[in-house]
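One-letter codes give the sequence; backbone shape is given numerically. An example follows:

. . .
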Amino acid sequence: MTPPPTDPFLEAALDEARAGLAEGGIPIGSVIVHGGRIIGRGHNRRVQRGSAILHAEMDAFENAGRQPASVYRESVLYTTLSPCAMCSGAILLYGIPRVVIGENRTFTGEEALLRARGVEVEVRQEPACIALMEAFIAAHPGLWNEDIGVD
């Protein structure tokens, strides 16, 4: 078993990913942190809700609810996997200045776009995040390809 991340916010995102897997979904989790407190948490619920857009980051934004722009401009988004184009668009739209990514080995999203638009992007390559996604992709390649728009 891989050790948990030492960062409590990345661990919270990983807990969300595990919750998604336990529900029969895709194990990706995210939290939004403002002032050292989680204001939104979520996990990929595309399968569970039959949704086209409910990725982990989108779920975290939804669960954060309406926030003033100033709150998002002072927040950090943690995600277990590199954000896709849709989720990166939401990050840019709401002005999130920093994104912490658990891993990008199994999927590299729009990190270059985020950096080009001034977002600080930190990739941790956390073993627990990598192991979770590698196991899921091996067990459910069709579902994974659907989630990233390949199949």
